[in-house]
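Researcher: Re-running this chain for the archive, since the previous output was lost when a drive failed. Same request as before.
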Amino acid sequence: MRPALSYRGNPRRPKAGAANEESNVRDLTASELRDHLAAANEPPLLLDVREEWEYGICRLEGSLLLPMGRLPAGIAHLEPARETVVICHHGIRSRMVAAFLERSGFTRVINLAGGVAAWARDVDPDMPVY
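Model: Regenerated structure tokens:
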């Protein structure tokens, strides 16, 4: 059985704020994303790819839940030209999904480096953690 998503890029995590050499996906730290959201003229899609039980514990306000395993079926409902920030727990699953979206024709993809764990630690200390 072949996995729905695979990662073929550089296995080392790119420096936050920079594009991966093999990808145009940007990694932003939680603080960088906070500033980016505050300055955005048009809010990006905040795409949370964690499982429902994780999303029930904590989430970024305004985010859309689309678990990683359901992405192939749900991708048709997303807008490839819209800036999309991909979010997970620690930034690993979201990085794989961001690369998948890019290979699928999405042109403005950002990965939240460190995921919601970093957001809770660096931006919103009142956010529940798990």
